[in-house]
Design goal:
Length: about 240
């Protein structure tokens, strides 16, 4: 199936690289490459043909197409197959993160991708929702919401800087889908907001075709959104970002 997407065999069959999904997108992850920090053996799991023996080796195997020396092949993805292929990569990257392996993402392209402005609007709405969540929760849930807000605000700033003057100011507030009066309803709002942002990420999948850096950016965004959402109970999907 992957071959029909005109992705080179060397990319499809490669062996790996990584994201925790929790880093603020402007810090060490979304604009920089920490190539040597991933701890991934260049020839695959230690021992050659000895098989997978640790969670780290299993996580590394999930990331073959995103390994540092294989990512240039992402530019061969065609618009027809980009959504499926990049969604699959995001799923594998998220699984690797769960196994403790973080992807060394490459720098974002200078020019915004199609759909970034629309995605930014959804980011703004999610940021507002998580502000409400932070107010209505306490303890570990509030700490999680606060960490989400830090990540979302860094992403908002970065997307706004790329949009330039083409995008107006956000509204003062957003309508909530239901009343949020306590911890349980706040957790439900968080799951709703992150699920919506994951779906919005799907609009960027086709925009990630034909350029390795842009494809990597789209996979990174989708991976991170899935990671944040799963912490609030958003169910992991085999093809995140694709229309249900």
């Amino acid at each position: 199936m992957l071959a029909t997407g005109r992705v080179p065999d060397s990319v499809v069959s490669a062996s790996p690289a990584p994201t925790t999904g929790r880093e603020a997108p402007g810090a060490a992850t979304p604009g920089s490459t920490s190539e040597g920090a991933s701890g991934i053996p260049s020839g695959g799991p230690a021992g050659g043909g000895g098989g997978v023996r640790t969670a780290t080796e299993a996580g590394a195997l999930e990331l073959g197409p995103l390994r540092v020396d294989r990512r240039s092949g992402l530019g061969a993805v065609t618009p027809t197959h980009a959504a499926l292929w990049l969604s699959m990569l995001a799923c594998r990257s998220r699984l690797a993160a769960q196994l403790g392996v973080a992807t060394p993402w490459q720098p974002w392209p200078e020019q915004p991708a199609d759909g970034e402005a629309t995605f930014l609007q959804q980011v703004r709405g999610t940021l507002y929702a998580m502000q409400v969540v932070a107010v209505r929760t306490s303890g570990a849930a509030r700490e999680r919401a606060t960490a989400d807000l830090t990540w979302l605000d860094a992403l908002r700033i970065r997307l706004e800087s790329r949009a330039g003057s083409a995008l107006g100011a956000p509204p003062v507030g957003y309508a909530l889908p239901f009343p949020v009066t306590d911890g349980p309803s706040a957790a439900r709002l968080a799951a709703h907001a992150w699920s919506g942002l994951q779906d919005a990420s799907g609009a960027l999948l086709v925009a990630g075709s034909g350029d390795a850096a842009r494809a990597s950016m789209v996979v990174q965004l989708l991976t991170d959104v899935v990671a944040h959402g799963s912490a609030w109970g958003v169910r992991l999907r085999a093809f995140p970002g694709l229309v249900r």
